[in-house]
């Protein structure tokens, strides 16, 4: 068997086109969705992310507000900016780019964002809402993975899913989303015993570990769907957490790196901004963009 390679880049482009259509429809009602991105410091990777977020926000017809603060900004100044953005009716989504400099308390900053504008879905209230099945803002990367899985598999009910990684950004919300879709979910992590054995029972494997080529072909049940969240910079360039060469011989479908989950993350950020805008204006949630 040779796995179908899931084209996340094409899926994300399609998603952005649908979002642009919705934005145009909102424009007719005098509504322009706005996304504010705050960057503190000069982390090169963060600068690249923020730049592409800004570009894609404008491409779908949304307003983009960029706030760049020096690395030594006092936390109180950042909190004051967040407060201004919370109160600004032109801003529907607020994203504070992580990581923040060491002198800042990330949780305090994230929890200062109005939950309804928290398009990253990291606010403690959104985490709780997701976990209890309430309307939430959902973290972008896991939301993108869910969309790809539903597109490939239809219903996820009764599927065995193994999520490798338990971070707050990817692993835990991914597990919540799969559970919400009635999959049977195992969350594996650095202390898990016999990870290959667990994966061999899985219809779905989501790898969010941060180790190049970690998941091997002989861990994979024939025909399984493998989602690779990892982004690892190596001498061979950008590679995922999944060893594509061996896994593609066994899996039914898998996402590549690059061109799989990565492009879905920004598309889902725009999807969340659209959802936040709809909710702020008393409109129904845009179709297919929320779990
Ligand atoms: P993290 O470092 O916060 O978490 C890694 C997780 O992997 C931990 O929960 C840890 O327990 C687990 N782990 C480590 N070693 C393990 C082992 N030997 N066996 C099993 N589990 C093990 O990372 P993160 O923020 O969740 O990101 C994971 C990866 O996904 C990174 O490569 C990151 O760059 C990438 N990422 C990609 C996107 C995207 O848009 N595609 C977004 C976020 C993160």
SSE arrangement, N to C: EHEHEHEHHHEHEHEEEEHEH
First-last Cα distance: 31 Å
The largest sheet has its strands arranged as 1-11-8-7-5-6
CATH topology of the largest domain: Rossmann fold
Regions with little confidence, pLDDT below 50 for 5+ residues: none
Explain the overall architecture.
- With 291 residues, the protein is an alpha/beta fold.
- The chain folds into two domains: 29-116, Leucine Dehydrogenase, chain A, domain 1 (Rossmann fold, 3-Layer(aba) Sandwich); 140-262, Rossmann fold (3-Layer(aba) Sandwich).
- The protein has ten helices and eleven strands.
- It has helices at 8-28, 44-59, 75-87, 106-110, 124-131, 140-153, 171-180, 195-199, 244-247, 261-280, and strands at 4-5, 34-40, 63-69, 93-96, 160-164, 184-188, 204-207, 225-228, 232-234, 237-239, 253-254.
- Helix 7 links the parallel strand 5 (160-164) and strand 6 (184-188).
- Helix 2 crosses helix 10 (261-280) and helix 6 (140-153) crosses helix 10.
- The protein binds nicotinamide-adenine-dinucleotide.
- The site of nicotinamide-adenine-dinucleotide has 23 residues, from helix 10.
Can you give me a brief rundown of this structure?
The chain is of the alpha/beta class.
Task: Give the helices and strands, then pairings.
Elements: E1 4-5, H1 8-28, E2 34-40, H2 44-59, E3 63-69, H3 75-87, E4 93-96, H4 106-110, H5 124-131, H6 140-153, E5 160-164, H7 171-180, E6 184-188, H8 195-199, E7 204-207, E8 225-228, E9 232-234, E10 237-239, H9 244-247, E11 253-254, H10 261-280
Parallel strand pairs: 1-11, 2-3, 2-4, 5-6, 5-7, 7-8, 8-11
Antiparallel strand pairs: 9-10
Helix pairs in contact: 1-10, 2-10, 6-7, 6-10
Bound molecules: nicotinamide-adenine-dinucleotide (NAD).
